[in-house]
Each structure stands twice: as C-alpha cells, then as structure tokens.
Amino acid sequence: AHSVELPTRFNVVVPFIDRHVGEGRGAKAAIRTAQETVSYSELAEQVNRAGNALLASGLAPGDRLLMVVKDCPAFFYLFWGAIKAGIVPVPPNTLLRAPDYAYMVEDSGCGLVVYSSEFTVEIVPALKQLGAKAPQSMTVDTFLAGMAKASSVLEPRLAAPEDDCFWLYSSGSTGRPKGAVHAQRDMVVTSELYGVRVLGIGENDISYSAAKLFFAYGLGNGMTFPLWVGGTAILDDRRPTPDTTFSNIETFKPTIYYGVPTLYAAQLAALETQKRDLSSLRACVSAGEALPGDMFRRWKEQTGTIILDGIGSTEALHIFIGNRLDDYRPGTSGKPVPGYEARILDENGDPVAKGESGRLWIKAESAARYYWNKPEKTAETMVNGWLNTGDTYREDEDGYFIYEGRSDDMLKVGGIWCSPVEIENCLIGHPAVLEAAVVGQTDEQSLIKPKAIVVLKQPGDAGAALTDALMAHCKRTLAPYKYPRWIEYVPELPKTATGKIQRFKLRG
Ligand code: 3UK
Prior knowledge:
By secondary structure, this protein is of the alpha/beta class. The chain has a domain at 419-505: 2-Layer Sandwich (GMP Synthetase, Chain A, domain 3). 32% of the residues lie in helices and 24% in strands. It contains 14 helices and 26 strands. A nine-stranded mixed beta sheet has the order 2-1-10-9-11-12-13-14-15, with helices on both faces. Strands 16, 17, 19, 20 and 21 form a five-stranded antiparallel beta sheet that branches. A hairpin with a 2-residue loop joins β19 (382-383) and β20 (386-395). The longest helix has 17 residues, at 40-56. It starts with 12 loop residues before the first helix and ends in a 19-residue tail after the last strand. The site of 5'-O-[(S)-[(2-aminobenzoyl)oxy](hydroxy)phosphoryl]adenosine has 24 residues, from α8, β13, β20 and β21.
C-alpha cells in the first residue's frame, strides 16, 4: 500500500503534464507568475517545442543538458522537454560562481548549457576557462526564440522506471559537488508519498515555494507536486524576502507555502511590525535545516497556521521524515513518511537503543542510485539500498525524530549547503590571512551561520576595517550566502598531531 505502482515502460512527462490535457484541464493554469499564466495545454505544447529544439541542437537521448535557469516557465519547458526527448536535464544552484560551473560542465560532460541572461557573468567565464573543451551554450532567450520555430508535436521517448532521468548536484565537505543521478520513478514517488499522502495535495491546491526550483526541495514543492495533481504553481524569480513572499501570498492566494527556517525567521520579524493577509494558506512546510520549536510557536500565534518541518535531501529527492497536519511535534523532524524506512545506527552499524543518538540511514524508493563519476562516494553513501544521510538523530519515546547535527563539518546556511573548507580556502586567498578555520555558530534566531577564526600574517592588522574587507572578499569570491557573519582573530588554531584543524574545539 505504501509503494507506488508504475508501468514497465513510460515517460514521466505523460502523467505529470500531457495527461491533464486529455483529462479536461487543458485550460487550467499550470504556472502563474507576475508576468504570465501558462495553461496545461500551453505547457504541453511548449515542452514539445523545447524537446524538439534540444534534439535539433544536436543533443541525443542520454546526453546531459546543464540548465542554469531562474524560476520561470522556461525552467519547466527545458526540464520536461529534455526528459520527453530522453535527454537528461541537470539544473544546478544558480547562486554559484564561475569555477563551480566550469567543474559541473566538465564533470557532467554536458552537450549544451542553457542559462538565464542574469547568470552570463558567471557562465561565460566558466566556459572560457574550459577553452576548446567547452560545449555549445546559449541564453534562455535565444533558446526560446529557437523553440518558437520548432514543432509542437513530440513522441515521448519511453524508458523503464529505473532509467536515468535527471541529476542534481550536491556539495560535500571536501572535494567537488557530486551529481546525484535520479531515475524516472523518483519524482513520481516523492509526489505521491509526500505530496499526496502527507500534504494531501490536490488539483485545487496552489503551491508557492520560496525555495527555488534548482533545490530538490523547491523542485518538488514548486514543480513536480502541483503538476502531479493538476494544480497550479506560483513562480517568482526574485530573491525571496518577507516583502516579496508576503505580497506573492496576498496576490496569488496559494494554499500551501514552502519556506526555509532562515526566511521564516525574517518573516516573523517583519510580522512584528506589519499585518499581512496569509489567510489563503492551509499548510506551511519547512526544510533544509531544523526549524526551532520556538519559531513554530510564534508562527502559529501570528498566522494561525502550523509549519510542518521535514528532513529531505538531494539524494532522497524530497522529505522522508516529516511532521503531518494531524501528527506533529514542534522542535522535531516528525516521523518517517509512510513508504520510507529510517534507522538510527551506532558506529558498528547496529541499531541504537530507542532514545540513543546515532547515524540516520534511510531506505527510499525515490533515492538516487549513484553519483556520477564518483564510485567511492557512491559506495560510502548508498549501501544495499540504504542511504547514509550523514546526520545524527535520536528518536523520542513517541517515535518523533530529533535532529542532533551533522556527522561531518558541513553547515546548512539558509537551507543551502556550505562547506567550511571552501570558505577557509577563500579566506586564505586574501593577502592578510595566514590560516583560517570556519565553524557554525547560532545567530539570535538559533539558526546556524558561518563564523571564521583567523590567524593573520601581521597580528596588528586585526580590526573592523580588515573584518569588512575579508567579508567583502568572501562575498565577491563565493556564492553570496557563504560569507562568514563573524570573524574572530587568534594567534594560532588548535590542530591534531598531523596538522588537521580541530574545528570541534572552535565551535561555540
Ligand atoms: C539537512 C535538515 C534538520 C540534513 C532537502 C527537503 O535540504 C535538502 O537537501 P540537501 O541535499 O541537504 C540535506 C541535508 O540538509 N536538513 C534538511 N532538512 C532538514 N536538517 N531538519 C530538517 N528539516 O543535514 C540533510 O542531510 O540540500 C530538503 C527536500 C528536499 C531536499 N533536497
């Protein structure tokens, strides 16, 4: 009863999009933005044109398309157009920098890069860096112009449920991002097990995700869940703030809103001085990092709606342990989503006694089957059908799962991965810095942000001016959310006998 039945050969575009036209939803809005509304029949047609344009560009089934695209209808056209033609779309985080994209282009071996013109400043240097190895590339506007001339009819390329469908890149604590390869079945499983069976999403729901589509969380919230049930998705390409999110809720009247704790904290602060109309919402969801219990209570007080915290991952595709509308406990991640299994294991791989903490492993029908080109990482993370989450958890006496931290040094900042090593390397690139260590520290909202502990070449340089300069250097070089919010100067860093920084000694 918990698993999801699929035909032996199919193409996921049919149940997610084409089906709705045949079932009388052709005129219904699939997507709404401030600029346009796209109906299901227009979407189905644009997806066909996109698939034909991708094939015409020389991509063949199995080839990768790197799509660095903001939240807009063209994201849907490219993603589903590729899948319908058997091409594998890879939508990375759009906040990254040229070296990250150069790596992904090379690692994925993609045959084409399509990017929103806003990202030209990072994509063009990335491709330049690759020289003769760079694949063809074009902006979304150029692609759309080509699409307009392509045929609006496309036969879906059939595949098995286990066949590769799309990838999502996930960052690690050391080393480069890993491409998690997802199969055709995976979006069906998350939409059904979490979207339909936990959230009760249906065709009358209007979904609005502040988390962007490039994030596995946003991809489910803002695209696959609404399409699976013939509902409507609201898209906004701007950086989400309390103002943009509240005004979108007032304008489009969504029934489900999806955010991350950092944004809920900013929204709660804004609600202290202004009244906003959030009465259209029947449910709110939070993921990406743990939602403090106090924020749950304040949101309920201010809005009358509860926030369902749930933990998901890029590898699992969406939420696998979550609170439910009729079964929740603030300050916990909730209980395993029916259809997913969770185990907390000790360092020998044996289950811990109930109430003890250990490493969380999950069994997920929606799990990526492997990382592209990374057999060792695959073997560490995906073992006999179980996924190592890298998180430490404990189960309380009533079966609610409580997050206790990461087992590596990785930080979640605003719900997005942040590697301390990457920030340290950036700081060391500044001429005043000798050594640096980065750890997570909680801010006044109890949410984790990066803090840097720095050893200077000239200790006398320490001061507010240098702190500003180092923060500016990080903001310029790294994805903007990764800069250290605090910088402390010390004469030396704690190290192991082999010279490894002991970050645990610096956490405060
Ligand atoms: C952490 C949480 C505590 C945890 C994601 C929902 O975040 C998502 O995917 P990522 O691959 O990161 C996964 C890691 O993030 N985490 C996520 N949610 C929570 N920790 N409480 C939470 N509620 O360390 C996990 O291993 O970026 C979230 C849906 C899809 C996703 N990809």
